[in-house]
Sequence to fold (612 residues):
Amino acid sequence: MRIKKTDLLPIVNDLKEEELAGLIDHTKLKPHEPKTKMLALYDEAVRHNFASVCVNSCWAKTIKNYRKLNPSNVKLCCVVGFPLGQMSTEAKAFEASYVRKHGADEVDMVINIGKVREISSFSGRERGLARNYVLKDVREVVKASENAIVKVILETGYLLDEEIVEACKICEEAGADFVKTSTGFGPMGAYPHHLKLMRGVVGDRLGVKVAGGIRNFLDAIRSLYAAANTKELRTPSKFRIGTSAGINIVNTLGWAKYTDVWFVEEIPCKICPSNYTSKLPIKIRNHYIKKCRTCAEKEYRKFRDF
Amino acid sequence: MRIKKTDLLPIVNDLKEEELAGLIDHTKLKPHEPKTKMLALYDEAVRHNFASVCVNSCWAKTIKNYRKLNPSNVKLCCVVGFPLGQMSTEAKAFEASYVRKHGADEVDMVINIGKVREISSFSGRERGLARNYVLKDVREVVKASENAIVKVILETGYLLDEEIVEACKICEEAGADFVKTSTGFGPMGAYPHHLKLMRGVVGDRLGVKVAGGIRNFLDAIRSLYAAANTKELRTPSKFRIGTSAGINIVNTLGWAKYTDVWFVEEIPCKICPSNYTSKLPIKIRNHYIKKCRTCAEKEYRKFRDF
Fold:
């Protein structure tokens, strides 16, 4: 997927700073962070008017109590079954109801990736069983979250295109509010190709959240272009950016309207999932290598060794 | 820590194949594996008489039912709060009791790494609170596991030496049966230095499990040397190796007694945690860089760019 400067400039000129800040989930999920960093995360989110803070479930209580002392509009978003999504359905549902009880307004769950892959690789009865498992997995978490916004992380790096489509359909059927690309701990981050695919399936009925590898302003705007091209989709209920570089991204917008140095004309392979092939399961890797051979932008492939 | 061939040869000559196989937890924890691979994992463990199969909690039921059809002595080991350990205590305890109900004989939980780091970086009341949190965290899981063997993963890559010592003491106080080095998803794998440290603290009262980066026979024997140097410690209740290369390791032992080509004289830095500095928190990285400067093996440092 090739993205030109002329594609992104209208979005940047249209965007207001508070609008962009309202789309950002300020995230800190590394396991070694102490309490002080978590409270600082909340403070930063309040100062910049971000949509939410996104933390692990052991910090739910801490942030809830801190928010009582420093009330604000910043939502509390907790991850569930993170980052592998290989917890049993019951355990995921319990964790979701736990964080809901302790002040979480939003729940980011991870889908069972192994079971999603079973749907496309098995047939007949086993296929139906796997599909039902995934459907029930998401549905139980949605039920346990009681009116909280539920985002389902698909970990797109492990899935083929048709598996992503199927997973999006299942999420919609199960009553989730968002589909989300990656955890940030998986084999690859969020690519515009996957975002466009997901938006194509869920339309404006569900939201799309991009996460994993959104490190600067260009990444964020590229994601906006791929998954939220119209003004109606650029609201916190339809699009979110999960990143720990939120402050940098919002600050860049201030001067990005007056110059275009933030835009680096990259060769299309750089933002193509086919370019990343190291830690993938063999089936996914072969799929991408095959796609790469018939790519419309193949004249760029000779520059691929970056 | 320098390990010579003469250190390892007595262990290899002493070891029997069934003894080594009995120490191995046959592991598959990647999130994208389908059901077929999990059943194959169990079959392999039965064929080679491994101590257990180690899987994520969503596979507990599957393997339990499969074991009913193919009974064996292979134990079922499930991970809890994996791999970040940042789930709330209640959610970890629920997951532990869930897997216990569904046939797990052993539970591998992840300690709350952020809270362990708080113990050493805070002081006074906050320090006590953090220590109590970690103690309660482990204790609740031990209680919920009901007589199952509980192994506590410390994720040594994120911790300083004194934090590892403190964490080991807490695990013993909380009633855990094993301390385990890493998840395999963390910043670094298991190093002999950490193993020796952990064995030094827990003595023969608790077991030590090595996991993360044990890819071949040499790694396994090195870990045995560091954490189970005597015959009494080389039993499944005192020492375990968590690896997905178990078949390779056991098969190598067959010919390892007749030749020593499996031993590669490596420079000591290669198996030193100071050598790995890329994804660590800044405090840990500085700690290792400082240690490296005063290392007894420092003449090897000039070869360090491997």
